[in-house]
Structure formats: structure tokens, C-alpha cells
Amino acid sequence: MLENGLVMVTIILVINIVYVSFFTIRMILTLKGQRYQAAFISMIEIVIYVIGLGLVLDNLDQIQNIIAYAVGYGIGVIVGMKIEEKLALGYITVNVITKEYDKDLPKDLRAKGYGVTSWAANGLEGDRMALQILTPRKYELKLYETIKTLDPKAFIIAYEPKTIYGGFWVKSVKKGKLFK
């Protein structure tokens, strides 16, 4: 079966797509501190890697195999990123500066399940409200839509916090009480 050039190219391509997807997910799990899951994924990843690389190294005289390996790697990066987007691991912190001071905005966001801390702020054009909002990453886009609906001119900056400790909201998330 491996004598057929097209079959060999297809196998190498698929193996590398799967390998790089696992690699991407393992790196994300590692960065998020999920060491045991990352270690388990890495065991599967390395078996796939050795098989794919072995096929290419055994057939270095076939340029199409090397090309398939490289193309599979590139596609694997994209597939891995898409998988990570769907998994949406972790949390996102969103800083919002409103166009106008609106004391009901934090209440509205809290009612939707978001963790919100707010304070009065002053900008170039007058009074503003600054909000810091914490949400699971899987609700990130929904949060942006909500903010834009409540204040279309809000200034939004988002980042991923490395460590989260304490607070009532984190306890509620761990108990599965939010966003139901």
C-alpha cells in the first residue's frame, strides 16, 4: 500500500496535520498549567510524529513526501488553532471604558452572569465608567456583543489573566452556577 505515491503523500499529509494539531493543543495546555493533560497529549503526539517523520526519512528521494510533510505541518497549525478556539480554555479579562457614566451597566452585565468591577473614571471628554469584566473564554464574543449593545461607543481591551485567585465569582464558576 505504501508503494503507491499518492497513498504515501496522503498518509504523510494526514499524519502531520494530526501531529501538529496535537502539538498546538499540548502547548496551549502547558501554557494554561494543565500539566497532566499536556503530558498525556504529548505521549500520543510523539508516536504520531515518529511515524510521520519515519515515513519521510525512509523516502527522502521522493520530493512529494517532503512537500506533503511541510503542507501537513502548515494545515496542522490552522487545524490546531481552530480546535483551540472551539475548546476556548481559560478565562478572559475585558477592560471597558464607557462613552458616558452609566451606573446601570455593571448591574446589567452582572445580571447576565459576568464578574464585573466598576469605578468612576475621567477621560478627555468628561466622566466615564471603567469596568473590569471576567468571563470564561467561551463567552468572550457574546460579552463583546453585549457591551456593544449596551454602549456602542465603549472602548474595549481584552487579555488573558495568568492567575485568578479569590472572589465570589471564581467560586461560582467552579460550582457551575453561572451562564446556565
UniProtKB/TrEMBL annotation:
Write down the CDD domains for this protein, in alphabetical order: YitT_C_like_1
The places in or outside the cell where this protein is found are:
Cell membrane
Query: Where is each DUF5698 domain found?
Result: 24-81
Q: Which residues form the signal peptide?
A: none
| Segments traversing the membrane | 6-29, 36-57, 63-81
Does Chloroplast show up as a keyword for this record?
no
Q: Per the similarity annotation, which family is this? A: Belongs to the UPF0316 family.
List the HAMAP family hit by this protein, alphabetically: UPF0316
Q: What is this protein called?
A: UPF0316 protein H9655_17480
